[in-house]
Specification:
single chain, mainly alpha, 4 helices
C-alpha cells in the first residue's frame, strides 16, 4: 500500500489490515458505494421513463450515467486507483476491456455480414412473389 492518501481507494487498509483513518473504514466506504450505485440506477430508470427530458438526449444521459456507475464500481468495490501498487489491476482491467471490445466489434461485423448476405434482392423477391 502507498502512504499518500490521494492514491488510496475508499476502504483501503494499511498493511496491518486496519483502516488508515476513521473516514475510510471498509463498512463506510462500501455503504457509500452502495448508496451511489443505487442512486445512479434509480436515476437511470427515471431518465428512461420520464417525458421531462429532450427525447434525443436520453441515450446520451443514460450513457453518462452508465459510465458514472462503472466509475463507482471501480473505485468503491474493485479499489482501482492511480497508485503504483495498482498497476497490475489496471492492466488486467484494460485487457478485459480490450477483450470485451473485440468480442462486441466482431459480433457486429458478423451480424452485418449475415444481414448483407441473407437479404434477398427486391427484384428476385418480386419475381418469386409473381410466380405464385
Amino acid at each position: 500500500m502507498t502512504t499518500t492518501p490521494y492514491d488510496r481507494a475508499p476502504g483501503d487498509t494499511s498493511p496491518s489490515g486496519r483502516p488508515q483513518d476513521a473516514e475510510t473504514s471498509p463498512f463506510i466506504a462500501y455503504t457509500i458505494g452502495l448508496l451511489l450505485a443505487v442512486l445512479l440506477t434509480a436515476t437511470s430508470f427515471w431518465v428512461a421513463n420520464t417525458s421531462l427530458l429532450w427525447p434525443p438526449g436520453v441515450p446520451l444521459g443514460l450513457a453518462v450515467l452508465a459510465i458514472a456507475q462503472m466509475g463507482v464500481h471501480l473505485v468503491f468495490f474493485l479499489h482501482i486507483t492511480t497508485g503504483p501498487d495498482n498497476t497490475n489491476n489496471t492492466l488486467a482491467l484494460a485487457f478485459g476491456v480490450l477483450i470485451v471490445a473485440l468480442v462486441i466489434a466482431g459480433s457486429v461485423v458478423i451480424m452485418d455480414n449475415l444481414n448483407a448476405n441473407m437479404v434477398m434482392p427486391m427484384n428476385e423477391l418480386m419475381d418469386l412473389h409473381m410466380q405464385h
